[in-house]
Amino acid sequence: MERKFYVTKISGEKELFSIAKYQRSLRRAGCTNEMLEMIMEDLLPTFKAGISTKEIYQQTWKFLKERDERSVAGRYNLKQALLKLGPSGYPFEHFVASILKKEGYKVNVGSTVNGFCVTHEVDVLAESDHQKVLVECKFHNKQEYRSNVKIPLYVKARLDDVNKYFEKVDKSKMFSKCFLVTNTKFTSDAIAYGECVGLNLISWGYPKDGSLEQLIQRNKLHPITCLNRLTQKELNLLLQNGIVLCSDLKDKSQEIQKLGLSKRKAEWLVAQGCALEGIK
Fold first, then answer.
1. Which of 111, 133, 138, 165 could disulfide-pair with 177, CB 3.0 to 4.6 Å?
2. CATH number listed for the domain at residues 225-277
3. Confidence of residue 117 (pLDDT cuts 50, 70, 90)
């Protein structure tokens, strides 16, 4: 008989623990049937009623890491890894641009665009054969922080000002879409407003088809923050030098050593990053 108990979410709300949802998250991370069975038999029974979702994550991550399932642990670590793409939002902007590039867009990060009233600093400009997209990124370094309705209100005002300018100057340069991307979640009001005015909101778990984690997993673009054993100093050094993705690490051992990491650490980093993304 399936054990039933409640867990405590980051928001403080209680919800019934879903084994199916838990197993899906493990399978998405690449967990084998054998390891999944081990987790169900050895780890799941230790979860007490009222346990927080954060504790479940931490215990599962530790369980995987201790059994030398480092690539799986790294992918399972995705939600927490995104929070480490700071303290500024600059690496997150490059990360989002990399996803859009893999999705078929030409991208530019950190552009200045004219508006009818004022000029605007835009996080990412994306363009395909059929559409021009203005992209705004909202980075949070804590999971409990959510983007409220003020964010899409501001972004919509910015889009309208830019398009009003191009309507007067060159209609072919008007933006057909606007993406607002956050690494955590949106409030229900933010989602309702975004849907009402036609903004494309992308966050952890939203939308149902095309959420942030789905885009990352589909394109195999995990951030280097998924990798453990990196000190904060080493992580900052890599991010500041434009190494944001695990896939960026391939064949870059010597380049990483020039940044100040030891040969052993650089080779380990490349090997782990490639293993996590399944790159040979």
1. 133
2. 1.10.150.20
3. very high
